[in-house]
Specification:
This protein is mostly loops. The chain has a domain at 1-80. The protein is built from eleven helices and no strands.
């Protein structure tokens, strides 16, 4: 009224409007309002006066009802789209964090009419309790405070009856809490782990094993907690070497329970008489003393195979103590088997034989002569004791001389020691006159 029609209409047609709502009214058109026909907001040709507030046109479309009172819709919504809100949720006392920021309003406010009084902040109001009330009234953010990753809890397991240690720290919750079951749970190892001992042992697993590694045996002391103290090489063995098939009780203590008896029972079960746990092949020479042959001297330093051969099962038992069983008899049996009458175990030479026991006492130069000088061919028994047996050349060299020792004299040939000594053949004994023999021819 009072305006020229040509300001809005054209002569070509009354409906061809040229009215600029942005400059010619108090309500600039923006967003979706620019695509709405005039009649949608001005029904029945009513243009003035019109209140420029949302409820003038959207009274029946207000999903909030009277919940927000006179609060202008533009505080949260804009004409570009009803769902494009700019509401600051932190003013409600429940700031949106993590994945909550990406959710549309209707996910928590499905009817659009829920207000702060109608909407509870507890997680269970919107989310299903996957724990089926196992934790009763404990708030979810006690474990799931990070809204970005619901499945990465920060629950402090030390607050429970089972503190996580070692490899348990790397296990996902579902590894122990299958099916979302969290309480009550038995804290015994067998509740999650297979019992490899199959009920043989009554002690708690922690007495021997550690959560840092099942094979890291930490608590069990074989020396004090069992009837078989570990010694020597046994200390370096894995448990499975002796406890095959996870058998830990009722095992024999005897060596043959684990080791093959190379002697095939010929020496009985007391392996410790000859062997030690430190090293089976160690030469236990001092333990040879229990038999008929005590080791001494050079025998102490020999390996068993030197006397018993490489196949101990056949040659250990029944080996006689006589020297000839291992050593060649250089005397060809002329002295019998008792070598120790003349020889020791430390050194074969020099001999300890007492020549005086033969009836021929060694004296003078004889004491320094090698045995083979008088006993060629190592023939020791039955040798004559006359000088000419060994000194034949000297004796026969006197033939045809003024001192012919080979000629027979009345009364027989005088013995050599009547004129000579064992210290020196020449000169003759003091006071001996060679003519004595010559005159008696």
């Amino acid at each position: 009224r009072g305006q020229r029609c040509s300001r809005c209409h054209q002569e070509e047609g009354f409906d061809n409007l040229k009215f600029n709502h942005n400059t010619m009214s108090r309500f600039p058109l923006r967003g979706r309002h620019t695509r709405v026909d005039c009649a949608r907001c001005h029904p029945d040709g009513h243009y003035k006066p019109i209140e420029p507030v949302c409820r003038t046109c959207h009274l029946d479309q207000n999903p909030h009802g009277d919940n927000f009172g006179e609060t202008p819709c533009g505080n949260c919504h804009d004409p570009t789209g009803w769902m494009n809100t700019r509401f600051d949720h932190s003013v409600t006392g429940f700031p949106l964090q993590g994945k909550h920021q990406d959710q549309p309003c209707f996910r928590c406010h499905p009817n659009g009419t829920e207000t702060e009084d109608d909407t509870r902040q507890e997680c269970a109001f919107c989310h299903h309790d996957v724990h089926d009330n196992q934790f009763e009234n404990a708030p979810c953010d006690r474990c799931h405070g990070n809204f970005d990753q619901w499945l990465i809890p920060f629950f402090d397991h030390t607050l429970s009856r089972f503190e996580l240690q070692g490899k348990h720290l790397d296990v996902q919750c579902a590894g122990c809490h299958k099916g979302g079951h969290y309480r009550p749970i038995d804290t015994a190892c067998a509740n999650c782990h297979q019992n490899f001992h199959e009920g043989q042992l009554e002690q708690p697993c922690s007495d021997c094993h550690s959560p840092h590694g099942w094979t890291l045996i930490s608590g069990f002391d074989h020396d004090t907690d069992s009837r078989f103290p570990l010694e020597g090489a046994h200390r370096d063995l894995d448990c499975a070497k002796c406890h095959v098939r996870n058998d830990y009780k009722g095992l024999p203590f005897e060596c043959e329970g684990c080791h093959f008896d190379v002697h095939q029972g010929s020496k009985g079960p007391a392996c410790g008489r000859c062997h030690t746990a430190a090293d089976w092949t160690t030469n236990q020479a001092q333990n040879h003393d229990f038999g008929p042959f005590t080791l001494a001297g050079a025998h102490d330093l020999l390996a068993c195979e030197r006397c018993h051969g490489p196949d101990r099962r056949k040659q250990l038992a029944g080996t006689g103590p006589e020297c000839v069983n291992c050593h060649r008899d250089p005397h060809f049996g002329s002295f019998g088997p008792l070598c120790h009458d003349c020889h020791g175990q430390r050194h074969f030479l020099p001999s300890t034989f007492l020549h005086v026991e033969t009836g021929f006492r060694l004296s003078g130069a004889h004491r320094f002569v090698e045995c083979r000088e008088c006993h060629p061919g190592r023939v020791f028994g039955g040798q004559p004791s006359t000088c000419d047996f060994c000194h034949t050349d000297t004796f026969e060299a006197t033939a045809g001389t003024d001192c012919d020792h080979t000629a027979e004299c009345p009364g027989g040939l005088a013995t050599c020691h009547n004129c000579h000594t064992t210290s020196s053949f020449v000169p003759a004994r003091p006071g001996v006159n060679c003519g004595t023999c010559e005159s008696s021819r």
